Amino acid sequence: MYLRKLDQEDCNALLTWWGWLDGHRGDRAVLRRASSPDDVLLTPAFAHFLQKMPARWVENNTIRLTDAAMIAAVVARVKTSDDRKKSFATSLASAKEGGSKAAMSELRFQQLQKSRTPEEFFLRLCRAIDLLGRKVNIISMADDALHWLSENRFGPDSKPDKRLAVRWASDYYAALKD
Q1: Contact partners, residue 34, CB within 8 Å, separation at least 6
Q2: How many helices (H) and strands (E) does the chain have?
Q3: Is residue 20 part of a domain?
Q4: Structural domain boundaries enclosing 91
Q5: In this model, does residue 172 exceed pLDDT 90?
Q6: Which of 15, 51, 53, 89 has a CA-to-CA distance to 140 between 20 and 30 Å?
Q7: Pair 125, 88: CB distance under 8 Å
Q8: How many domains does the chain have?
Q9: In 22-64, which ranges are continuous DSSP H helix?
């Protein structure tokens, strides 16, 4: 089992903030136009995001500010929360509505996994959200993004079953063959 980055309090706060964006379309638009997490840092919507998230996100740097900005930016791109228990990687392999091909091709999936920088990962993650029709399991995506950022910064776990790439590959290819 992998190490979750988000606890229940984080999940509840994240979904509440995402719901708040429905009534604040201007803030959502600003976040959606961000071309990098750094673009998000100085926006009022991000300040509101930090206010809504548990205090530990800000007080003791449990989540880095730039990582929080990335989460705010990608969550703002989601139009519909897919609250089914389907993981983010499984969604990427699932067929689009009315189609038979995976939402994300194997090549794009591999490119997403092999992103070298947070900026590259951010752009590919945004593309993945678009490919899913902006219908995403917000919690799974946010948790996976934080996991990726942690592995990018500190290196992957020595145990393969705790590595994001292994879990993603397992979920993606299991759903692809169904």
Answers
A1: 40, 43, 73
A2: 11, 2
A3: yes
A4: 8-177
A5: yes
A6: 51
A7: no
A8: 1
A9: 25-32, 37-40, 44-52, 56-59
Rounded to two decimals, the pTM is 0.92
Confidence at residue 25, expressed as pLDDT on a 0 to 100 scale: 94
Q: Where are the beta strands (DSSP E) in 52-152?
A: 80-81, 135-136
Decide if 123 is inside a domain.
yes
pLDDT of residue 1 exceeding 50: no
Strands (E), 82-136: 135-136
What digits encode the pLDDT tens for the residues 41-58? 999 999 999 999 998 887
Place of tokens 């020595």: 158
For residue 2, being part of any structural domain is answered with no
Q: Can you tell me the distance from the alpha carbon of 102 to that of 154, in angstroms, rounded to the nearest whole number? A: 31
Tokens describing residue 94: 């699932």
- pLDDT at residue 174 tops 90: yes
Task: Report yes or no on 119 lying in a domain.
Answer: yes
